[in-house]
Amino acid sequence: MFRKLYDWTLRWAGSRYAEPAMGAVSFVESSVFPIPADVLFIPMCLSRPDRVWRYALIATITSVLGGVFGWLIGHYAFDLLARPALEFYGKLAAFETLKSQTGDLAILVMLITSGLTHLPPMKVVTILSGVVSFDLKWFILSAIVARGGRFYLLAWALQRYGVRMTGFIERRMTAIVAGLILVGGLIWLATRMM
Fold first, then answer.
1. Spatial contact of 94 and 120, defined as CB atoms under 8 Å apart
2. How far apart are CA 112 and CA 128, in angstroms?
3. What are the tens digits of pLDDT across the range 89-120?
4. What is the pLDDT of residues 18-44, one digit of tens each?
5. DSSP assignment, residue 89?
């Protein structure tokens, strides 16, 4: 099953619709969507290593624009749009905790860490930045640095090591999936016990 999904993703990543789809996912991931752009970015880079820099640019631009959209939602339409979305994803309590602990420096740190590692989730930080009226110029600059840094570093690594990584993944698909499920289960268990 995972082999078919993996093969399908790689084939689809090479299609003519891959760039607009990745741009759309990257945009909405920064404001409302729970799935990171990496699910398309990585297979696209693996299937077309000659285009990794183009993909990094597209992902960076659309992610920053999506972040600005999230900031606008938080600033102008929190109760109308953001609160229901955060409730739907079960992130309202995390959002309220973050909001109570934030100052400009905390927002800046969260923007950088969420842009680089998705912790805390980017959509939560972009909306929070708008709610607390974090300076939009600093918001955009930090998003460019963090998201651009992430996508360009990933592009470099995939261009340099992608062929070897692809071979490794294809030879050990079952073990990798089992390991990911095990790690995910342990993380879920640890969060339940706290």
1. yes
2. 14
3. 888 888 788 778 777 888 888 888 887 777 77
4. 899 889 889 998 887 777 888 888 888
5. T
Residue 26 has, within 13 A of its CA and on its CB side, a CA count of: 27
Residue spans per domain, the chain = 2-162
Asked whether the beta carbons of 60 and 71 are under 8 A apart, the reply is no
Name every residue whose Cβ is closer than 8 Å to that of residue 138 and which is 6 or more positions away in sequence.
Answer: 104, 108
Cα–Cα nearest to 20, from 47, 1, 40: 40
Count CA within 13 A, CB hemisphere, residue 194: 6
Q: Does the model's pTM come out above 0.85? A: no
Structure tokens at 66: 């999506």
Sequence-distant (≥ 6) Cβ neighbours of residue 155 within 8 angstroms: 45, 52, 53, 55, 56
Closest-CA residue to 59 (of 160, 148, 159): 148
Q: How many CB atoms lie within 10 A of CB 48?
A: 16
Helix (H) or strand (E) holding 25: helix 18-29
